């Protein structure tokens, strides 16, 4: 199967990624900083909290947890992105890893929080749920939470409005539609909360249903 999002593209982007997201005014990164802050707020970080950041990129989300004394474990499938993240987070643990695959053995443990930003829109909904249910079964503590911040819309109508406004900046990917994703996640055994942070981004807060 051809990989539509090869790691080499992200290796090439690593040098300019932080500049790409810093403006945060236009699609797809409108509200970028607000989204990261929303993930952190919902995670309620404290010193010693173990946090797994999936698709950490250059470490922009992870560093917010590090500043709050959390124990950081970070993955990404781009070696160049990880090199940037290591510069920002010398005390974190890192692994070169594709989310479609099981986590490396040294990461096969329980975490208090699993977080991710701007990653899961690369996967169709069924694959999103497969990855998340596997993580919930193996990697999250009984009282832990998974927080996914990503390009997301309340419904298809809103997506189409943003698509029309974005014009040439739009790319068709597997963006979240909350009114479809939330019921599917609930059917997969999660308690789900969703908040819209910007016109094109939101956060899913997931806990295993008892």
Distance between the termini: 37 Å
- Rg, alpha carbons: 16 Å
Shape: globular
Q: How would you state the average pLDDT, rounded?
A: 93
Query: Fraction of residues in helices?
Result: 25-40%
- How many strands in all? 8
Largest sheet: 8 strands, mixed
Order of helices and strands: HHHEHEHEEHEHEHEE
Task: Give the strand content.
Answer: 25-35%
In terms of structural class, how would the helical and strand content be classed? Answer: alpha/beta
**Uncertain regions: pLDDT < 50 for 5+ in a row?**
none
SSE map:
Blueprint: H1 7-13, H2 17-22, H3 32-43, E1 50-54, H4 62-66, E2 71-76, H5 79-88, E3 93-96, E4 111-117, H6 125-138, E5 140-153, H7 156-166, E6 176-177, H8 178-187, E7 190-198, E8 201-208
Parallel strand pairs: 1-2, 1-4, 2-3, 4-5, 5-6
Antiparallel strand pairs: 5-8, 7-8
Describe this entry's structure for a reader.
Strands 1, 2, 3, 4, 5, 6, 7 and 8 form an eight-stranded mixed beta sheet that branches. This protein has helices spanning 7-13, 17-22, 32-43, 62-66, 79-88, 125-138, 156-166, 178-187; strands spanning 50-54, 71-76, 93-96, 111-117, 140-153, 176-177, 190-198, 201-208. The longest helix has 14 residues, at 125-138. It is an alpha/beta fold. The radius of gyration is 16 Å and the shape is globular. The protein has eight helices and eight strands. Strand 1 (50-54), helix 4 and strand 2 form a beta-alpha-beta unit. 36% of the residues lie in helices and 26% in strands.
């Amino acid at each position: 199967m051809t990989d539509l999002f090869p790691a080499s593209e992200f290796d090439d982007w690593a040098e300019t990624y932080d500049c790409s997201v810093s403006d945060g005014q236009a699609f797809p990164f409108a509200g970028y900083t607000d989204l990261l802050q929303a993930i952190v707020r919902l995670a309620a970080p404290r010193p010693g909290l173990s946090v797994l950041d999936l698709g950490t990129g250059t470490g922009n989300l992870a560093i917010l947890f590090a500043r709050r004394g959390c124990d950081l474990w970070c993955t990404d499938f781009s070696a160049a992105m990880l090199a940037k993240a290591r510069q920002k987070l010398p005390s974190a643990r890192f692994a070169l890893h594709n989310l479609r695959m099981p986590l490396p053995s040294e990461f096969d443990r329980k975490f208090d929080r699993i977080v991710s930003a701007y990653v899961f829109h690369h996967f169709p909904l069924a694959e999103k749920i497969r990855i998340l249910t596997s993580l919930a079964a193996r990697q999250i503590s009984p009282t832990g939470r998974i927080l996914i911040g990503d390009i997301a819309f309340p419904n298809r109508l809103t997506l189409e409005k943003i698509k029309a406004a974005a014009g040439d900046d739009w790319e068709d990917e597997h963006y979240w539609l909350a009114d479809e994703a939330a019921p599917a996640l609930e059917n997969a055994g999660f308690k789900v909360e969703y908040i819209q942070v910007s016109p094109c981004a939101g956060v899913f807060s997931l806990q295993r249903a008892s």
